[in-house]
Structure formats: structure tokens, C-alpha cells
Amino acid sequence: MRLWATIVLGVLALGGCKKAVTEAIAPDEMGVDLSACISPVLMTPSIIAAQTPTPAQVVGTGFENGAQVFIGNTALSDVRFENENSLRIGLPAMEAGMYDIVVQNSDGDRGTIWQGLQVGDGGRGLIASRTCLSVVIHFETNGTGLSNANRAELNAQLGCWGEQGSIISIEGHADERGTTDYNLALGQRRADSVRRYLSQGGVALHNMTTLSVGEESPADIAHTEAAWKRNRRVSVGSR
Q1: Dihedral angle at the C-alpha atoms of 187, 189, 195, 198, nearest 10 degrees?
Q2: pLDDT tens by residue, 64-116
Q3: Helical packing angle, 148-163 and 180-200, nearest 10°
Q4: Total structural domains within the chain
Q5: Of 47, 88, 184, 189, which cross-links 80 as Cys (Cβ 3.0–4.6 Å)?
Q6: Distance between CA 217 and CA 187 in Å, rounded?
Q7: Rounded CA gap, 58 and 68, in Å?
Q8: Secondary structure (DSSP) of 155-212
Q9: pLDDT value of position 93
Q10: CATH number at residue 104
Q11: How far apart are CA 98 and CA 118, in angstroms?
């Protein structure tokens, strides 16, 4: 219950396109992009046994009564709207594999959890066999907020990071412009934005570490706009 309280409070904080954003809570301060109308964040359980019907829950923002849920290309017949942050679903017996989860409102607005469901043969040893990929996301100049593209990249591994017990390392970087102190602080704010987002998606805070190296470890050593764009980044991976 404590974990679900954290997740639900987190997605409520994300809001949606129908909610006004006040000056007191700027997108950069929250570490997320508030422009999306619908954003599924997490399904639980996200690992199930093959050929086994399973009840589940999708948590996110912007859900409407009558929303549809697709697992891969298959529309589910058992979808129960709880509120704008929660849908209860019934997963049918499925073949082993990885599946995208799509939530679509009646107006056609949709959001996706990429490879958010893993169906395994027998349901044993799934977590141990699942490998979480590293992710690198990029930022605008002086920016710390997450764009829709950033969130999609993080969402692709969110369920995996939330289920494994290893430590998730979040490393913030800046380009070479600005003072050393400013760039270290900027890299830390970027890393903290990612940490907040992953926490809201169900990754335990004690399983994450953040570090800023500022401008000291560039991905591209050139002194060009293209190089600076590649260097404004946060790298996320398990260790």
C-alpha cells in the first residue's frame, strides 16, 4: 500500500493538459512536461505467466471514462475506469513475449508504455532474466524539465528499473559553456528531475543514486552547437 500511495501521489502531481499550471509550480521544478493529455506510466503486475488470465492496474494521468486499453494490437474487453489516474483491466491468456500497453480515450488521444508488459513461459525466473537497458536523454540549453520524448525514453525501461533490486545510477551533464560551479549545479538539477520522475513511476528512492559531473565528461569534445546539444544530457543505467 505504501508503494501505491507513492505512485498515485506521483501521477496526481504530474497533472494533465486540462489542468492549469501556476507560476508557483513550473514544469522545470517538477521535472516533467505537463503538456500531455494522457500519459500511462506503469502497469502492475508488469511481469506475468504465459497463458494465464491476470487482473492488473494501469496508473497514469488523463484517463477518461470509456478509455480503451490495447496490449500490443489487441483491445481488451475488460477495462474498468476508476478515476483519471487508474484503470483496472483483465489480461487474457497470452503468448510469451514483450508487449506495448496503449491507453486511448474516446477522443482518440492516446499514450503508450513501450514494452511495458513481459509475458513469460511459466512465470518463473522472469525478473532475473530481464535486462534493463541504459538510457541517455538530452535537454535544452539551461533546461532541466523533461520533454515528452524524454519521458517516452524513460518509460521504456521504467517497469524494469522498478522491479530489479540493483542500484539505478543517474548522472547529470552540462555543456562547456558557463562556470564550473554553474554546470555542476545544472547537471545535478537535471539528474534530480529524472530521479523525481522515476520515483513517481514506482522506482524506490533508495534504489537510485544521482551524480553531477557538470562539463567534465563530454560525449562530444567539439566546440559546436551540435556537440553542446549532445553534452546536455542525463545517463541512466543499473549497476
Answers
A1: -100
A2: 999 999 998 899 999 999 898 889 999 999 998 889 999 999 999 999 888 88
A3: 60
A4: 2
A5: 88
A6: 11
A7: 11
A8: HHHHHHHHH--SPEEEEEE--SSS-HHHHHHHHHHHHHHHHHHHHHTT--GGGEEEEE
A9: 92
A10: 2.60.40.10
A11: 5
Domain that holds residue 228: 135-238
Q: SS3 string of 141-157?
A: CCCCCCCHHHHHHHHHH
Which residue, among 61, 44, 146, has the nearest Cα to 103 in the 3D structure? 61
pLDDT tens track for 186-197? 999 999 999 999
For the chain, the C-alpha Rg in angstroms (whole number) is: 19
**Over residues 40-53, mean pLDDT:** 83
What CATH number does the domain containing 142 carry?
3.30.1330.60
**C-alpha angle 161/167/168, rounded to 5°?**
55
Question: Given a cut of 60, is residue 171 above it in pLDDT?
Answer: yes
Specify whether 177 is located in the same domain as 231.
yes
Interaxial angle between packed helices 180-200 and 2-14, expressed in degrees from 0 to 180 and rounded to the nearest 10: 120
Q: Out of 78, 105, 124, pick the residue that ends a domain.
A: 124
Q: Mean of the per-residue pLDDT values for the chain?
A: 81
Single-letter amino acid, residue 126: L
**How far apart, in whole angstroms, are the C-alpha atoms of residue 196 and residue 114?**
20
Instruction: Say if CB 42 and CB 155 are below 8 A apart.
Output: no
Task: Cite the beta strand spans of 23-125 per DSSP E.
Answer: 39-44, 47-49, 54-61, 68-71, 74-75, 79-83, 86-91, 97-104, 110-120
Pairing of the two strands 168-173 and 208-214: parallel
